[in-house]
Request: fold
Amino acid sequence: MPSTSDLELLLRGADLRVTRPRLAVLAAVHAHPHAETDALISAVRDDLGDVSHQAVYDVLRALTAAGLVRRIQPAGSLARYESRVGDNHHHVVCRSCGAIADVDCAVGDTPCLTAAEDHGFLIQEAEVVYWGVCSDCQNAAPPIREEARV
Ligand SMILES: [Zn+2]
Ligand SMILES: [Zn+2]
Reply:
């Protein structure tokens, strides 16, 4: 976990004024990778007391625009935020419980940005999501279905 002065440096390095809500939201994203906004709001409230949803949304938008936070949104999921930025890493998502984990690029550094055919686009990002079942869900007893008993 980065210290408060590390977080202040990150904000200043991105030309953002250091404010308590920005520090609290950035700290919450570092502490809770891939958290949804609601989880971040409650973490920020533990830290700062009463902060409006809108204030947290606004700060998340500013941090994302400044490149300090990455926003991901797998299909069927709410937006989630993480502090691991700039490496175009991928995610594996559990179809059963929605758990998310980081996956490095398969080969070297951002190879997926080299599209086989760019259609004239200036390509900036490749989004790869691996879908599967997490180990907790694999170990959980499968649900008993009535039709399976026949
Ligand atoms: Zn799962
Ligand atoms: Zn991630």
In short: The helical segments are 4-13, 20-31, 37-48, 53-65, 135-139, 146-149. Strands lie at 35-36, 70-72, 80-82, 90-94, 100-103, 129-132. The radius of gyration is 19 Å. The first strand starts at residue 35 and ends at 36.
